[in-house]
Amino acid sequence: MERAVRTDLPGLTRRRRRPGEALGPYLMILPGWLWLAAFFVTPVIVMVSLSLQTGNFIDGFRQTFHFGTYADMVRTYHVQLVRSLVYGVAATVACAAVGYPVAYWIAFRAGRHKSVFLFLMLLPFFVSFVIRTQSWNVVLADHGVLLGPLKDIGLLPADFHLLATPYAVIGGLTYNFLPFMVLPVYVALERVDPKVIEASTDLYASRAGTFLRVVLPLSLPGVFAGVLLTFVPACADYVNAGILGGPSTTMIGNIIQTEYFTNLDYPGASALSFVLMGALLLAVFTYARTLGTDEVLEAAAR
Amino acid sequence: MTTTTAAPVADAPTAPRTRRTGRPRRRPTLTLYTVLVLAWLLLPIAVMILFGFNDTGSKVNFTWQGFTLNWYRHLFAIPNLTSALVNSLTIALVVAVVATLLGTPIGLALGRHRFRGRGSVDLLMFAAIAAPEIALGAALLSLFIVLGVPRGYWTIVIAHVAFCIPYVAITVRARMAGHDPTLEEAARDLGAGPWTAFRLVTLPMLLPGVASGALLCFALSVDDYVITSFNAGRTVTFPLWVYSASRTGVPPQVNVMGTLIFVGGLIIAGANVLFSRRRAA
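ok -> structure tokens follow
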């Protein structure tokens, strides 16, 4: 959309008044670019280099191009790696299932109050992520506000618990990333031209037919963007697993942190981080290719 | 609840009205569902606010004991927590200023100019946003370890600025997209120098975007746990303090601080909306 606007603005491409002007954009980009080069690109390269070193914390690490670390790490922690992906997929699917109807309702049924409901969707972002997760810890506590009364009246056995189960962790992930799904889906639904829906009903499509064959396909780009925005952070998250989970719900993020700070196994931790980042970025870029990075960025900016 | 929220449905300008069946089409199920999901979203916020007023005797704040304003009175009674909050706020302020200064020109260049390498800058922004936070944190930690840089306050600032720059750039770029470049050209044709044209034409138009970008940075920085935890060393920020306390029990002061941040954030966001609306009018 943006691109279409730009091409018919002649000032952008044609004009070249002063010789120094061509340098302009580069000078504008340079400071921020240098910062990202130094503190985003370089660190990733250093991390890869560190992952191929061998040694230990006391004697130091030396570069030996030891690719075996990757195999060792993946073999040791494949359970947590797979678990992270499974939790990520589960949370993403849950976000889409829970969030799509909400986005639909806000886009088509909220009438004048659309912005109020969108604002309510965004409200959780005004509370710290860790505090929100901690609040669930309070709500779901073994004898807390939710389970306590249910146990007292005998509806649940005394040893029933939600914390430290996969349900709590996936629920926490779904909770925390739900707005990232609802907003792009809402934006896509909002763009659906009401005339198209009208045409569909005029042509005697049923209500379900109109939804399945007109509205849903038109909103899919929003769902794709939402999947991206929820899947990556959900897989890599370890706050939910840390606060709401237990030993049996450890995710790869928790492992990476332990490897860095407790085991001081820097090469191993670097290798795991790179595997996680590589896997997720590969998935994201394959995804974005089919969609166009602009649109994903646009959705991410909201 | 349902009846009040169902009311606007009647005048929704879409499908229901165009149907020829003549039946009023309300779908209370979907409305009820949305209300329930929103309630679910807002429940932890309510819990946070409520338990800031909880008259709990100990640090353990899990069950409701009665109403008190005690924790508001003794908000700064835990020195570690207070210094963590101060760290978070000052870091966020520095980050917002630096990241906005670095990110705004990128957004401006991406939104206004076509140049060789534009695609790769786009890609860099995209990668920095799409990469999982933990990988950014871990990569920076690796760099600091290899260089022997001790982690602390300033490594947190460096890390936060790095992940905030793309967000500022994108916010500003989005603002530029709706802007007509011929306005600035007109100013130049009328004899304004490049700086004057920028100051009098581009900058006022850009300002709401820049303000949103800066606020976004502040919010992202105050809230960040993952990247901070990797690069904090012994420095403790508010989220780090809360996370480590969550194992043993979070004192009510945390709820109070969370509530105050929440209310402050709402006021600033509201002011920003009003301000940009006034400008637009």
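The two ends of chain A are 17 Å apart (CA to CA).
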